[in-house]
Specification:
With 294 residues, the protein is of the alpha/beta class. Helix content is 38%, strand content 18%. Helix 2 (72-84) packs parallel to helix 3. Belongs to the cysteine synthase/cystathionine beta-synthase family.
Length: 294
């Protein structure tokens, strides 16, 4: 049987924590999104946003697409845009790891780097200016309903299926918030008692892929009613847990995954029993040029 590379997106493994789980009455699972072909959970949203835009006629093969990204969405969009023959420019802060930039270029995308001191907000402003002045079409993951719907149709159902409906808590880092919005919507339809736990950085912590957005940049797809509680993690907690995931669980992932796992472990210490699923959103190899694993 032969598959398109796009058919390998989703149905990622759910693996049980063997070492880090602090509570014997809790089952702690990690959803291994690095197994997607583009290496992250963002493959799901990128495919959904590109397919949806093409089907609605929002853009076509003559359009010039643009998107601001901190990395994983850009890689996914570069891969999928290339498969559809689309022209895309990806905008990201200049302090992004070289692995991310090189991967996007390998897939055929144009990459523009914006000043590090203005962060992803500056990249978003740059992209919006190109839309206004030069006729680009922005995918706009922050307000695109196809982002969260990807997880409503895939991530949520997979977790429900693979836990046999026994999940009690879902833990996810919050960036664009597409993963937590879509998964929450599905799981709450199945069982309104399932607790949805978002993960944000503590004040002044810089954790790629997790954000505490200023009000003017808050993703439009975000609905706070779909998140039952928010746990904050520090930069040190996220880094330390990314290292522990690799050394103790054999899970090689990035800093935002470390943050989510740290929050899931905190949560496990506070409940009597339950089934927790935490998103491992990408692979660690795209952070090797950073000091994450030094």
């Amino acid at each position: 049987m032969s598959y398109s590379i796009l058919e390998t997106i989703g149905n990622t493994p759910l693996v049980v924590s063997k070492k880090l789980n602090p509570n014997p009455n809790v089952m702690l699972y990690f959803k291994m999104e690095g197994h997607n072909p583009g290496g992250s959970v963002k493959d799901r949203a990128a495919l959904s946003m590109i397919k949806g835009g093409l089907e609605r006629g929002d853009f076509n093969k003559n359009s010039r697409l643009i998107e601001a990204t901190s990395g994983n969405t850009g890689i996914a969009l570069a891969m999928i845009a290339g498969l559809y023959g689309l022209d895309i420019e990806l905008v990201m802060p200049e302090n992004s790891t070289k692995e991310r930039v090189q991967t996007m270029r390998a897939y055929g995308a144009k990459v523009t780097l914006t000043p590090a001191d203005v962060g992803i907000e500056g990249a978003r402003d740059y992209a919006e200016a190109k839309v206004a002045k030069e006729g680009f079409y922005m995918i706009n993951q922050f307000s695109n309903d196809d982002n969260w719907k990807a997880h409503y149709h895939s991530t949520g159902p997979e977790i429900w299926r693979d836990t046999q409906g026994e999940i009690t808590h879902f833990v996810s880092s919050m960036g664009t918030t597409g993963t937590i919005m879509g998964t929450s919507t599905f799981l709450k339809e199945k069982n309104s008692q399932i607790q949805i736990v978002g993960v944000q950085p503590s004040d002044d912590a810089k954790i790629p892929g997790i954000r505490k957005w200023p009000v003017e940049y808050l993703p439009k797809i975000f609905d706070p009613k779909k998140v039952d509680s928010v746990l904050e993690v520090s930069e040190k907690e996220a880094i330390d847990m990314a290292k522990r995931l690799a050394k103790e669980e054999g899970i090689f992932a990035g800093m935002s995954s470390g943050g989510a796992a740290a929050a899931a472990i905190k949560l496990a210490q506070t409940i009597d029993s339950g089934v927790i699923v935490s998103i491992i959103c990408d692979r660690g190899d795209r952070y090797l040029s950073s000091d994450l694993f030094l």
